[in-house]
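Practice problem: predict the structure.
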Amino acid sequence: MSGLALVAIVGRPNVGKSTLFNALTRTRDALVADFPGVTRDRIYGRAHLGERGVILIDTGGLEAAADEVQSGAQRQTRLAADEADVIIFVTDARAGITSDDMEIARWLRALDKPLIHAVNKIDGLSEAQALADASELGLGEPHLIAASHRRGIDRLARDTEAVLPPPEPVEPRPDGVIQLALIGRPNAGKSTLLNRLLGEERALASPIAGTTRDPIHAEVEREGLHLHLVDTAGIRRRRGSHEGIERFSTIKALQAIEQAQVVCLLVDAVDGVTEQDARLAGHIIDAGRAFIVVLNKWDVLDERQRRQLLVAMAERMEFTSFAPVVTVSALHGSGLGELTDAIGHVDSRARQEISTPILTRSLRRAVEAHPPPGGKRATPKLRYAHSGGIFPTRFIIHGNRTAHVPEQYRRYLINSFRRQFDLTGVPVRLIFKDSDNPYAGRKNKLTPRQIQKRKRLTSLGRKKKSRR
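Answer:
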C-alpha cells in the first residue's frame, strides 16, 4: 500500500472549510462555528474520495488584513497548500466573490497544482446566479455544494479523486514479513525502542523532542518474527520555528500507518495519556491496522503512579480496549519479549482466514442471543456473513433492512466476533448489504403467492354468486 495523497481545503475565513472537512471525513474533528477565524491550526484527517483514501487537511482562513495570530494561521495554510497534491478552494455563495477570493485564486493558480473550486452555502440560492458569480475567478467549472447538508459532496469527492496523482508503486515485501510502524508523540522513546529492537544505534535518540525528522526503515528478526520497522518522527500539535518540518513529519507518520500492518502506539508513561495519544489511536483504528499500546518509561513510575496511569488510559482511551497494552523501558530493554509476543499475536489474529460457514454460524449465535432491535416493519434480518479482507479486517453481512441496524447493535456484533475469533488488537469493520429482491422496483406487480391468493378469492366469489 502506498502513501496517501494529500488534499488541502483553503479559502477565506467562515466560508465553510471545516464543515466541508467534517463532511468528507465523516467526523466532527474540525471546530465549526458561525464566526470567522475559529480554525487557527492545520487539522489532519483520513477520508475516502471514491475508491481512494487521502489525508485531508483543514486550514485557517486567508485574508488580507491579519493580526499576528492570524498571520501565523495563514503561514500554516500556505504550508498546507505547498504540501498538498490537490487543493479544494472554497468560496461562499452568499457573500459572492470578494477581493480576497480573487487574491487567493491568483496565488493558487501560481502553485500549478490540481485545483477544485467549491462554492459553498448554496442552499436556498439561485444556482445559475452562484455559477455566474463563481465564473469570475476563471478556475473552471465550480462545484455547487451545501456542506452542512452534504449536498453536492459525493460529486465533489468523485471529481477530486479524478485529479489525484496515481498511487505510488508498492515495493513488494517477502511473505512472512510484518510491516511494523512505531508511532507516538515526540520524545516518547520511538527511536530508543527501534535501536533496542535492532541491537544497534540506527536512529538518533535524544532527550530533545522532535529529533527524528524522516522515517527510518530497517529489517530485523526477533524470536522467529521478521519485522520491517519504520520509526516515524514524533507527532505533536504546537507552533514554533520548526513547525513546517514537524507538520511534514506528521504527514509522513500518518502515511507510515497506512503502509504498516501492525502499529505500536508509544505513550510516554511519565507524561501520561494525552488528547494527542487518543487522536493517534483514532488514526490507527480508522486505517484498520492491528495495533498495540506501548507504555514506555514504565520503570520510572512507582506503583501508585502506574495505577493512576492505567486508570487514566481506561478512561481517555476506552475505544482502544480491544488492543493489548505492553509496558516497556526502551532505555533499559525491559518488556521487549512481551512486546515481540504481542506483535506476533495481533498480526496472526489480523491475518486469520475465517470461512463463510463459520462466520455465518457465529453471526447466527449472536443474533439468537440478542436479536437486533426494530419496529414491526423495520426489524433487520441478518442471514449470513463472509470475510471482506484484512488490513482492515472486514466482515460483510447480508440480510434485509440492514440500513436499520443501529450503531449500538453493530458494536455488539463486533464485540461478539472479537470474542469468538480472538481478534485482539484488530479493528473490525462491518459492511451490511441487503439481499436482492427480485420484485423490487416492480410497481403494482404481484408476487406469485399474491396472484394465487387473488385467484382463489375470485373463484370463491364466483361460486357464491352462482349459488344466489
